[in-house]
Write a sequence for this structure.
């Protein structure tokens, strides 16, 4: 694909960057275009940027502050990275905005910081940006403006935040107050940093607040802000905490490159995906904090590949703006708190500009991503995920047996494999960006309301007589090692007070995922399973026959689901569900699925083969690719190469 000409990029350099062609100059040009594009939407005093698009639930003034704060972070990377040698208008705009935003008489003043207000999020970006640009902005502000800025930030002192990554917004903002000699609360900082210790689960992973909340917030918040705080606190000011943060980030980054496809796409999972290349924040922070295990050439290849991936697909758009979506505007992939300037948290993806131009990350020759060198398998027990990438098509797939973004289960919950499910354990939400069995770098879940009602893709459901599907809400991990992961969840049907246990084991083999389901169901229920949803500008091709279903896009991405055991739905047991305007990857989407005959009641076993590939797929042949032996509760899978796995 070609990058849109409106970005005005320099020529590619295939000697320094043989994989992407991009250099630091490409990053600077992209940042400049994004910053220049915002100016038509600024209020007269530059305190707010009121961008076009759907407003958030916080209101137009808060959205305008968001535009200032998040773009200020991008401007700070550009200004500080250039040692202040940028167009003076850039620093002048943000200095003026600070003056107007903190002046109650300006007509564009920012809302005060109050407990759990959206302003707290934006204040953290302003605090980081002020610290990084201190010689060029803060130190040159009029003393009265500095006083007003301090007064605005003082709303944090003793304030209450939401009990998740928001604790860190208070930490960095009050540390900025301390750095400029203003009153602050040391206990606020200490308590915030102490609290994230409760959420560290090992191997470099945090959960974002209580529960099993694993997504990109771990990288662009939980790892990022503690080390940004350490930068503000300065040498010796971190009380010894920073070394632990550096070690944890280093461990996290060992696995992190496995989340990115050969085309630069990150795995499409979790909330706030409209932040897009903010997913690069932990990669750059590893280099900034000198704690990365990644070679310099791999760091730049990963980062440039991702930024270029989006640029090739119209991000930023022809106006130079980031829209609410993934590629194009797509509101179902956003949250109610997402306003028109929310996507500018993507500014975190430009933290690498804070590294000097002669840093080895910018001067080393690019190295290949893991998926460009070989097929990869990565087990991540902390979040309960398996990653597998295939070199020949560059796709990375994530198998989810651990992240559900729900509150913790009640204390009485027994997650032992032999326990009966408590009816209450089915409670909670089933956000499509967490509830699916699988995600990838080439697909997105069906997420529009009309598609959610059917809930076909990436899900095994019990269907009520009226077709209502059960939901996969709270996920209880059981196992995650090597190429195998398993979990269970409770399924409920309308009018039935009982919760039925569905236990699933995923086994990886090359590009295949084999799912073994042990299902409890009432008599008459139908078991249905869906594969990956594929989407494109053109309607995907679809084909099915008893025992398999396949959907393929015009550019050759295929999703197939093949029955290996327990699927006896006959002629009507396999098909492809189509939808429109329900997928972030394109307006036309399709999902292969399998259906069983009406259940006899009690327990059953169902085994299916899930394929997502750019190869040609022959589903009928795949039905013989795995030999399945079921003996009571024991299931053995034997592959063509002789490998046998017991699930």
């Amino acid at each position: 694909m070609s990058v849109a000409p409106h970005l005005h990029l320099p020529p590619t350099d295939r000697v320094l960057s043989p994989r992407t062609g991009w250099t630091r100059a490409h990053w600077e040009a992209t940042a400049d275009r994004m910053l220049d594009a915002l100016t038509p939407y600024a209020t007269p005093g530059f305190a707010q940027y009121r961008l076009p698009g759907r407003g958030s639930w916080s209101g137009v003034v808060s959205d305008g502050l968001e535009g200032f704060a998040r773009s200020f972070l991008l401007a700070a990377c550009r200004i500080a990275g250039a040692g202040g040698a940028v167009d003076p208008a850039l620093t002048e705009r943000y200095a003026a905005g600070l003056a107007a935003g903190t002046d109650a008489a300006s007509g564009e003043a920012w809302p005060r910081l109050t407990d759990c207000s959206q302003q707290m999020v934006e204040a953290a970006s302003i605090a980081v940006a002020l610290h990084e640009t201190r010689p060029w902005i803060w130190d040159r502000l009029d003393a009265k403006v500095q006083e007003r800025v301090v007064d605005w930030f003082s709303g944090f002192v003793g304030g209450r935040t939401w009990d998740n990554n928001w604790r860190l917004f208070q930490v960095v903002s009050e540390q900025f107050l301390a750095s400029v000699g203003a009153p602050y609360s040391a206990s606020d900082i200490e308590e915030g940093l102490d609290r994230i210790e409760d959420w560290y689960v090992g191997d470099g992973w945090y959960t974002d607040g209580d529960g099993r909340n694993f997504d990109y917030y771990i990288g662009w918040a939980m790892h990022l802000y503690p080390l940004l705080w350490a930068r503000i606190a300065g040498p010796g000011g971190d009380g010894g905490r920073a070394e632990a943060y550096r070690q944890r980030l280093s461990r996290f980054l060992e696995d992190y490159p496995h989340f990115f496809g050969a085309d630069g796409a990150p795995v499409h999972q979790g909330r706030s995906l409209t932040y897009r290349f903010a997913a690069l924040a932990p990669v750059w922070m590893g280099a900034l904090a000198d704690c990365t295990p990644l070679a310099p050439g791999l760091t730049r290849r990963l980062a440039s590949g991702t930024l270029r991936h989006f640029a090739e697909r119209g991000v930023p758009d022809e106006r130079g703006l980031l829209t609410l979506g993934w590629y194009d505007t797509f509101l179902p992939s956003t949250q109610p708190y997402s306003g028109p300037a929310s996507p500018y948290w993507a500014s975190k993806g430009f933290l690498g500009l804070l590294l000097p131009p002669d840093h080895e990350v910018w001067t080393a020759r690019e190295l290949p991503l893991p998926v460009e060198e070989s097929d990869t398998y990565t087990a991540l027990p902390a979040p309960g995920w398996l990653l597998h990438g295939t070199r020949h098509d560059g796709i990375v797939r994530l198998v989810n047996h651990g992240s559900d973004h729900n509150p913790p289960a009640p204390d009485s919950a027994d997650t032992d494999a032999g326990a009966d499910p408590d009816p209450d354990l089915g409670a909670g939400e089933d956000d499509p960006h967490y509830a699916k069995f699988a995600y990838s770098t080439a697909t997105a879940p069906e997420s529009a309301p009309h598609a959610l009602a059917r809930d076909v893709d990436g899900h095994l459901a019990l269907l009520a007589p009226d077709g209502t599907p059960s939901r996969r809400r709270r996920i209880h991990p059981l196992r995650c090692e090597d190429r195998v992961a398993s979990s269970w969840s409770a399924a409920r049907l309308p009018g039935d007070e009982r919760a039925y246990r569905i236990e699933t084991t995923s086994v990886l083999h090359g590009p295949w995922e084999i799912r073994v389901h042990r299902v409890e169901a009432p008599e008459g229920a139908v078991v249905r399973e869906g594969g990956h949803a594929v989407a494109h500008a053109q309607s995907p091709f679809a084909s099915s026959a008893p025992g398999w279903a396949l959907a393929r896009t015009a550019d050759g991405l295929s999703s197939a689901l093949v029955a290996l055991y327990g699927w006896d739905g006959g002629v009507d047991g396999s098909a492809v569900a189509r939808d429109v305007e329900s997928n972030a990857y394109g307006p036309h989407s399709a999902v292969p699925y399998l259906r069983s005959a009406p259940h006899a009641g009690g327990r059953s076993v169902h085994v299916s083969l899930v394929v997502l590939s750019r190869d040609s797929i022959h589903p009928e042949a795949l039905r013989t690719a795995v030999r399945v032996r079921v003996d009571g509760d024991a299931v053995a899978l034997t592959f063509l190469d002789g490998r046998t796995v017991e699930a």
